[in-house]
Amino acid sequence: MRLAAISDVHSNLAALEAVLADIKGRKVRRKVFLGDAVGYGPDPDEVTALIASECRTGAVAGNHDWGAIGLTDVSFFNTAARTAIEWTSKSITQKTGDTLRGWPLTKKLRRDGILLVHSTPVEPADWDYLFSAEQAAGFFDTFKERICLVGHSHVPFIAELSPSGDVFSYKDEAELVDGCRYIMNVGSVGQPRDGDPRAAYALFDDGKVSIVRVEYDIKATQDRMSAVGLPESLIERIAVGH
Ligand code: ZN
Q1: Distance between Cα 61 and ligand 1 center (Å)
Q2: Distance from the CA of 221 to the center of ligand 1, in angstroms?
Q3: How far is the CA of 24 from the centre of ligand 1 (A)?
Q4: pLDDT at site 242
Q5: Rounded CA gap, 213 and 133, in Å?
Q6: 10 to each of 2, 37, 70, 144, how far by Cα in Å?
Q7: Measured between alpha carbons, how far is 145 from 112 in angstroms, rounded to an integer?
């Protein structure tokens, strides 16, 4: 299985382009998307179109995607996130709205034994967060596939369930062991929150999964955010990675 998994791009075009170039450089063709194309950032139309054309193996919607098209209540968002999602709702084209509306909340890749979901496999539209392998341990009996890929918290981790029921935690690299099952958070392309501002994605290759970090032109995205008038706190946080 050779596959790249990206998530939480949040309208950050420079970060998405850098990640797609890195994936292309590794000659990995199959790409999946775990939700939140839009929100926080300055280029929702371009980012959504690029994800739709590149991630043809599978794509699901996130809470910001649903928020932008009125499918989820954004009163739960913090002030800056809500300001950005309201700007997004007003600025996106009809075509972008149609693309976001077309993504399901979960997607099964039967051939690969993979479940894609933005938040958790339990009631995905409740938008609960998985931050760690320890927390994910309680979710293995809530889906049937061998691997569940999530995003949403912007903090990557790999949880491995052994046949004996033990759960092991890996930060950014793990062998895929026969008989073991996995829950992985692939991190965020456009707004990492683990203290590393580089874009993150997950790469499956050669029986192993790794979280890849990619440098991109953060200043270019910050300048675009200023130009369209997005909140200062959102502009600052992408440079520090949380
Ligand atoms: Zn997100």
Answers
A1: 10
A2: 16
A3: 24
A4: 86
A5: 20
A6: 25, 5, 17, 29
A7: 9
* Ligand 1 centroid, distance to 36 Cα (angstroms): 5
Q: What is the DSSP string of 52-73?
A: HHH-TTEE---HHHHHHTTSS-
**Enclosing H/E stretch for 205:** strand 199-205
pLDDT tens readout for residues 168-227: 999 999 999 999 999 999 999 999 999 999 999 999 998 999 999 999 999 999 999 999
153 CA from centroid of ligand 1 (Å): 6
Given phi > 0 = left and psi -120 to 50 = alpha, else beta, which region is 117?
A: beta
Cβ count near 122 (within 10 Å): 12
Mean pLDDT score of the chain: 97
The answer to whether domain 3-237 has CATH 3.40.50.20 is no
Give distance in angstroms: CA of 227 to centre of ligand 1. Answer: 22
Distance from Cα 40 to the centre of ligand 1, integer Å: 9
pTM for the whole structure:
0.97
Is the pLDDT assigned to residue 159 strictly greater than 90? yes
Q: What angle do CA 102, 107, 111 make, to 5 degrees?
A: 130
Reported as a single tens digit per residue, the pLDDT across 65-76 is: 999 999 999 998
